[in-house]
Amino acid sequence: xxxxxxxxxxxxxxVALSLAIVGTANATIVFEDNFNSYNGGxxxxxxxxxxxxxxxxxxxxxxxxxxxxxxxxxxxxxIDLDGSTANAGIMGHLESLAPGDYTLSFDLAGNQRDAxxxxxxxxxxxxxxxxxxxxxxxxxxxxxxFTTYNLNFSISDLLNxxxxxxxxxxxxxxxxxxxxxxxVLQDRISVPEPGILSMLALGLLGIGLSRRKIA
Length: 215
Ligand SMILES: [Ca+2]
Ligand SMILES: [Ca+2]
Ligand SMILES: [Ca+2]
What we know:
Low-confidence stretches: 20-24
Number of strands: 12
Helix content: 10-25%
Strand content: 35-45%
Shape: globular
Number of helices: 2
Mean pLDDT: 86
Bound molecules: calcium ion
Largest sheet: 7 strands, antiparallel
CATH topology of the largest domain: Jelly Rolls
Radius of gyration: 23 Å
Structural class: alpha+beta
CATH superfamily of the largest domain: Galactose-binding domain-like
CATH architecture of the largest domain: Sandwich
Number of domains: 2
């Protein structure tokens, strides 16, 4: 292999290395809940005992799984967003957040029971402070298993921590709702703009090419 090719390879691997470093740095989990340990690990209909972690703000939700109405075994406990009172639930969590970029990820599954149309709204509301709220509506057919979704938002209040409410709400009230598990809030990984990356790659490529001319 010529020395110029070797240099080029080294340059490209340096780019790959810097990408790998950037891609893994600074992701901090702020909050996570897999629902597995509530109620001593035992499911319960119309569950409200989430302590201070979640409040059921409207309707009801069921804590199911782990052998209790366990439609998707192997996931411990999880939530049926339409409880058992013919009034679908909305559950929310409050978090105080410093300025920055965040990603809320969560797993949703179809209701696993019937073909009724389901809609889940994941919402991030900034109750105090400033930033960019986010919201999404998700419908899944009944047989769809747990699927991970990401919702990005930013907090821009530089003076005080902002108070953020993220919530998951179902519509309808037939006691059969979509399933929720594995809610994770983390700092968004900061990655350079694609334009900057390609300029960096071209620059390193240029070093390799100019070396080739000299050689
Ligand atoms: Ca779980
Ligand atoms: Ca239910
Ligand atoms: Ca339903």
